[in-house]
Amino acid sequence: MAGLFDKQAEIYLDARPTYPAEWYNMLAELTPHHSLAWDVGTGNGQAAISVAKHYGQVIATDISEAQLKCAMQHPRIRYLHTPLSLSDDELVNLIGGENSVDLIIVAQAVHWFDLPRFYYVPGGILAVWGYKDMKVDPTFDAAGKRWFETTLPYWNAKTQSFFGGYCSLPFPFESVGLGSEGNPLALDIPKELSFEGYMRMVQSWSAIATAKEHGVDLLSEGTVKELENAWGGANVVRTIVYKGFMLAGKVKV
């Protein structure tokens, strides 16, 4: 996934939805200690900012320097660039050593990872989550689905488990009541969204950047106009729901 989100790092920061505070409350209640959390694949730090309300320190890592340059700053968050060349031992030492982490989170990113390598994690509770479908109303949902189908050739093969809502994602950890392997917990992310906000969100997709590299504009003027009409107009703010999913488990040490 290296480089997939670099070109649209600033759009990503502005466009992606934040996650409900209740999610972090649920996760914080699972850990007896609240000294250190690790946000893996932090991107611009949207999840790190929220988890910092519950933990003394948050280490937020990403392989994308471009994303980290756009990250939201917080006195309890330490952002670290972790290139793929970093060894497992180097990574564990970087975040404080074995069994040092109370909570490990991965928001909208674990499907990109080398899972056997990543699942060698240094103790604690591991929670991974994502969101995919967005529900607006029958008219826009139908138009959005038709357009989304034109993007399918440009998604990386690693997104297969993501589009399946992590139902097929290997997750060999002890269940803590928030989803389990093969049975993710369904969660909603409600949001007030303008059409401009919707457009910025889809512009941040990796498939849009990949299509451009192949000379294909998935958001032509005609396509955008069709989506805008289905939305109800450029200036209309809609109440929408992102359909989320989570898996959480206890790391065996």
UniProtKB/TrEMBL annotation:
Residue ranges occupied by any Methyltransferase domain in the UniProt entry: 39-116
UniProt xrefs under InterPro entries: Methyltransf_25, SAM-dependent_MTases_sf
Source superkingdom: Eukaryota
Protein name, per record: Methyltransferase domain-containing protein
Organism of origin: Rehmannia glutinosa (Chinese foxglove)
